[in-house]
Recover the amino acids of this structure.
């Protein structure tokens, strides 16, 4: 499993309007190419953010299919934004940086 993003060297304030951190779950399927791309793309996107601004859990849906079903995940990779509200999901390799930033509520300046 690839390493999670490392905290940013600069400790800018969180780019969110709420005090709560961004809570994310990324469902993958083992080491499939598209899952690895999603992990890499999300890692690069989150890297500039201070570590206390987000929580990311990477879950292999093949290891825990019941959990994936409970979370409504039928395909991988799927990124779930749990909080702040509203909860949302993104499918695929997360290569469209602008779209992912917009959905997560992260300003381009923060990323």
């Amino acid at each position: 499993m690839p390493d999670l993003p490392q905290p940013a060297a600069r400790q800018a304030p969180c780019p969110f309007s709420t005090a709560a951190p961004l809570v994310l779950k990324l469902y993958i399927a083992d080491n499939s190419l598209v899952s690895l791309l999603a992990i890499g793309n999300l890692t690069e996107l989150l890297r500039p953010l201070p570590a206390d601004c987000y929580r990311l859990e990477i879950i292999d849906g093949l290891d825990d299919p019941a959990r994936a079903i409970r979370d409504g995940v039928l395909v991988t990779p799927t990124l779930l934004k749990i909080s702040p509200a509203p909860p949302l999901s993104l499918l695929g390799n997360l290569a469209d940086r602008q779209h992912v930033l917009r959905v997560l509520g992260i300003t381009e300046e923060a990323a």
Q: What stands out?
A: Helices lie at 33-46, 65-70, 97-104.
